[in-house]
From TrEMBL:
It comes from the Eukaryota. Its main location: endoplasmic reticulum. It is found in: Endoplasmic reticulum membrane. InterPro entries: TMEM85/Emc4. Keywords: Endoplasmic reticulum, Membrane, Transmembrane, Transmembrane helix. Belongs to the EMC4 family. GO terms for cellular component: endoplasmic reticulum membrane. This is ER membrane protein complex subunit 4. The lineage of its organism: Eukaryota, Fungi, Dikarya, Ascomycota, Saccharomycotina. The keyword Transmembrane helix applies. It is a multi-pass membrane protein.
Length: 168
């Protein structure tokens, strides 16, 4: 017989004082907390879903500063990295607008917050369009957006820039 078998186990946990913040739970208390979770106010749930919708709607706006910085750092030359970045700045927002908008907001719609969700969807689309505007700026700095008559008409002379002024 080992030494461990001779040790008696105390079977009455009430003989010890519980540590602060600890309550010995019984089966009935667990069912009480489950009932409390199920009895949450529908208005509170609707408000939480509206807050989550606004978090989703403002998500793309958080990536705009990083996209601007990366676009600036890749330069204006016609090389593979800046062209791929400009392509990605167009395709990712378009994909998000057409495929993810309804998918992201579908589970959050309730009869009480349907107007708030609709506004959040519109803000989501506007933020995606703002991300696409970074791509337009990138294409403009690379010289790929036609802005002069000579870009469209073969008989017009190319505009010669005499001075350059830089913002940065």
């Amino acid at each position: 017989m080992s030494d461990f078998e001779s040790i008696s186990v105390i079977k009455t946990p009430k003989s010890y004082k519980s540590p602060p913040g600890f309550e010995l739970s019984t089966g009935s208390k667990k069912s009480d907390t489950a009932a409390q979770i199920k009895k949450q106010d529908p208005k509170a749930i609707s408000d939480l879903k509206a807050k989550k919708a606004w978090e989703i709607a403002m998500g793309p706006a958080k990536s705009i500063p990083m996209n601007l910085f990366m676009s600036y750092m890749t330069g204006n030359s016609l090389q593979i990295i800046p062209i791929m970045m400009a392509f990605n700045l167009f395709m990712s927002p378009l994909k998000a607008i057409f495929t993810e908008t309804n998918k992201n907001f579908k589970q959050l719609i309730t009869p009480e917050n349907s107007n708030d969700i609709l506004v959040a969807k519109a803000i989501f689309v506007l933020c995606q369009l703002a991300c696409m505007s970074v791509g337009v700026w990138k294409l403009n700095t690379m010289g790929l957006i036609p802005r002069h008559r000579s870009d469209w008409l073969a008989w017009e002379e190319v505009v010669q820039v005499k001075e350059w002024s830089s913002i940065f």
